[in-house]
Design brief:
mainly alpha
């Protein structure tokens, strides 16, 4: 850019627009600062993969990274302080909401591990009670359904409710994993540049009783339901956590995991169905509203609610199933970079090969 503006064809006024080295350095640091929250927002704004289960860990890491960035870049410390203050307000509310804890627990690569590493023991115990109470509510509903259903018309749980099985994780899940890996890389780079040792942000007894969110266990509920719930939860926890670094479809995509485990953990499967659709960001919802504006035009003022819903779902499905020539490619990126052609083929296309090959 300097060489271009320094040519004689440009006036002195135009050359004065050239950024100085200090300004370029400042803009580079601002871009690096904005890259930190952008990398998180990009991951949790997905619309085809569950994101609520990774929201709290990602925001805790984001809080730490912003503090580290402010410590190593004093000229941008004010901006980092404002961002951390706002993020602290959000996290204080999120830690009191049971859905974030439940979402992490039903993540087979996380379960209670992250909570035990970052929360106080009393808060972990409270989160376990949240999960037990939620499972009891679903267990009670399942028992009521079984009692109300006539015995002669009982249908096995897997009939008529099966979900399409997928042997491999979809592209959205792979993209989310790739985004998390990039965020970890950014986190490591920032930690290496930071000279101040900081401890990870903890939740430190910030949880509430959540009594208004989940009905507490009462003595009227059958003891056998509690026994079934505790046994199922213990089996789920004893299974251990999946390696999130592996290429296993269940580890990459929790939806695949719960599709396969629906008959193994029946009550937890109901909890997963209730939690997985909840997203951490409002971006997908805003996109739906923007799309609805294009559907509900002035010439379509008489559209009913049912037809509007049908059109929106159809538009989303058509958009999601666009033709993609990259699907199911066998060749890897490394293989595509290799050029191994016969000499006669190269000569046919007009390439001249040197004597050294």
């Amino acid at each position: 850019m300097k060489l271009v503006l320094q040519k004689p064809v440009y006036s002195e006024a135009e050359q004065a627009l050239l950024l100085t080295d200090s300004q370029i350095k400042r803009l580079t640091k601002i871009a690096a600062f904005l890259e930190i929250p952008h990398s998180v927002q990009e991951i949790i704004s997905a619309e085809k993969t569950p994101t609520l289960m990774i929201a709290l860990p990602m925001y805790e890491e984001l809080l730490l990274m912003l503090k580290q960035f402010g410590g190593t870049n004093p000229e941008l410390s004010d901006a980092a302080d404002v961002a951390t203050q706002k993020l602290d307000e959000y996290l204080s509310k999120a830690r009191k909401n049971c859905i974030y804890a439940l979402a992490m627990v039903i993540n087979p690569t996380m379960k209670f591990r992250w909570l035990e590493e970052n929360w106080e023991p009393s808060d972990v115990t409270k989160a376990k009670k949240w999960l037990t109470d939620t499972m009891m509510e679903f267990r009670k509903a399942m028992r009521t359904e079984d009692e109300q259903r006539p015995s002669e018309t009982q249908i096995p749980a897997h009939v008529g409710t099966s979900v399409v099985q997928r042997s491999t994780a979809n592209h959205a899940s792979l993209a989310q994993k790739s985004g998390c890996e990039r965020f970890k890389s950014l986190r490591q780079e920032l930690s290496a540049a930071s000279t101040d040792s900081m401890s990870s942000a903890s939740s430190s007894s910030a949880l509430s009783d959540s009594s208004a969110q989940i009905a507490t266990l009462t003595e009227e509920q059958p003891v056998e339901d509690l026994k079934i719930v505790e046994d199922e939860l213990n089996r789920y926890l004893d299974e251990g956590v999946l390696d999130d670094e592996s290429n296993d479809a269940e580890a990459i995509d929790p939806v695949i995991y719960w599709e396969r485990k629906r008959s193994v953990y029946k009550t937890l499967f109901r909890v997963a169905l209730d939690i997985l659709p909840s997203q951490a960001s409002a971006v997908p919802s805003e996109q739906v509203f923007s799309s609805a504006k294009e559907t509900d035009t002035i010439r379509r003022a008489n559209l009913g609610e049912t037809m509007m819903e049908v059109l929106q779902i159809m538009k989303f499905n058509l958009k999601s199933e666009r033709l993609d020539f990259n699907n199911d490619w066998v060749a890897t990126e490394e293989e595509l970079r290799v050029i191994d052609l016969d000499a006669s083929v190269m000569t046919h296309f007009g390439f001249t090969l040197s004597s050294t090959g």
